[in-house]
Amino acid sequence: MKENIIVDKSKKFAVRIVKLYQYMCSTKKEYILSKQLLRSGTSIGANVKEAVRGQSRSDFYAKMNIALKEASETEYWIELLYETNYLSEQEFESIYYDCQELLKILMSITKSQKGETS
Fold it and tell me: Which of 7, 14, 18, 116 has a CA that sits 20 to 30 A from residue 70's CA?
C-alpha cells in the first residue's frame, strides 16, 4: 500500500498517547484526564483510517472532520495535563508539537475537501 502521511502520523501519535496514558496511570496515578486523552488521541487515527477506506468523498470528508475534532479535543487534554503539572514542560512540548502537526495536516485536508463535497 502507498505511504499515507496522515495515516502514518496519526498511528504513531496514537502509540505515543497509549504510552503517555500508561505513564500517567502508573507513575502519576492520574486516571481521569488521561483516560479522556487516551480516548480522543487514539480516535484520531481510527477516524483517519476509516476516511481512507470511505465509500465516497462526503464520507471521507466527514471522517476527516471527526479526526480534526478529536485532535482539537486531544490538544485540550494535553494542555490541561500540562497546566495542572502532570506533564513537565519537556513532555508537554514534545507531544503538543506532534498534536499541532496533526491539526495542521487535518485542517488542510478538510479545507481542501470541503469545496469538493458541497
Answer: 116
Cell of 73: 479535543
Q: What CATH number is given to the structural domain containing 73?
A: 1.20.1440.60
Let me know if residue 48 belongs to a domain: yes
Convert the pLDDT of each residue in 87-97 to its tens digit: 999 999 999 99
Residue 16 lies in a domain: yes
Q: What is the pTM of this model?
A: 0.93
Residue 117 in domain: no
Q: CA 41, CA 5: separation in Å to the nearest integer? A: 17
Residue 53: Cβ within 10 Å count: 9
Q: Tell me whether residue 2 is exposed, middle or buried, using C-beta atoms within 10 angstroms of its C-beta: 0 to 12, 13 to 18, 19 or more.
A: exposed
Residues 59-86: tens digit of each pLDDT: 999 999 999 999 999 999 999 999 999 9
Domain membership of residue 102 (yes or no) is yes
Instruction: Report the length, in residues, of the chain.
Output: 118
C-alpha cell at 32: 481521569
Q: How many domains does the chain have?
A: 1
